[in-house]
Amino acid sequence: MLQRLRFIPLRIVQAIPVVFGVTLVVFFLVRFLPGSPAIAMLGEHATPAAIAAVDKEYGLNAPIWVQYGDFIGNLVRGNLGQSLFYHQPVSQLVRVGFPATLYLVVYAIVLTVIISVPLAAVAASAPGRARDQFVRVGPLVGLGMPQFWVGIMLILILGVRLKIFPIGGYGSDFVANLGYLFLPALTVAISMSPIVIRSLRSAMISVLGSDYVGTARSKGTSPFHLFSRHVLRNAAVPTVTVLGVNVGYLLGGTIVVEKVFALPGLGNYMVTAIFNRDFPTVQGITLVIALMVVVVGILTDVVYALLDPRVKLA
């Protein structure tokens, strides 16, 4: 097993230029946002002298390459900078918001799997028939709807009208969060499930037509064991890759969803920082999210290698 995981150090080394590229792109892109951080802090009626004082205090009046050099220098020392809007270190915001975002992402992945596996199995068991067509077309509705609209509809139906789940906020412990984060996680899962269902359905159809499945059937293997031991494990290999590749899309979805459900996560901080031209917060949180995507990519390779011993990743 350890030999199959020898690629991990190389993946970590390969991630370094990716993260550096993210810092470069994000740093310069946020500078193209219209408006001034100083005006966002002081208001529209701030005097030029007050604006100049704020720019000098936060180094915003320095040449842009000097600002980038300071940002990288601070980053090497583990300093993500000082938030212009929240008036506290960005690293502190990350420590506060990261658990909620991580919980939401993991919860959304679990719900995506719970939704996708049964529907893909139903579709793959009768390809071309009515239930297959329904499973293939039905979830696409969720893919085409904006996540903020899906979230609002879930709030109105399951939160306000039926009063089954909380409509916003964050719980105080793990069990409470299962209720508080269900609607936001379901919102993200509804958008992710069609992609996973399509991949898993195709893989299951291919596996069901293989010789070893036919041999297992001829030996009298029960449908449950046939599905769990032979079909699902082999069909999950390409689907794991699809899910890992789409984690970036999933994280992007949580940014909007956190705002809709008033979750104290990185996405909520990010949206607020963008509207208030809080450059250090946007840069720091974007970097953390990029690192999450890189880590998930490495974990995807690990799971892929464990599921299929034939695969050798270099």
UniProtKB/TrEMBL annotation:
SUPFAM superfamilies: MetI-like. The keyword Membrane applies. It holds the Pfam family BPD_transp_1_N. Its main location: membrane. PROSITE patterns: ABC_TM1. It is a multi-pass membrane protein. Keywords: Cell membrane, Membrane, Transmembrane, Transmembrane helix, Transport. The chain crosses the membrane at residues 12-33, 102-125, 137-158, 178-197, 235-257, 285-307. Belongs to the binding-protein-dependent transport system permease family. PANTHER family: DIPEPTIDE TRANSPORT SYSTEM PERMEASE PROTEIN DPPB-RELATED. This is ABC transporter permease. The lineage of its organism: Bacteria, Bacillati, Actinomycetota, Actinomycetes, Micrococcales.
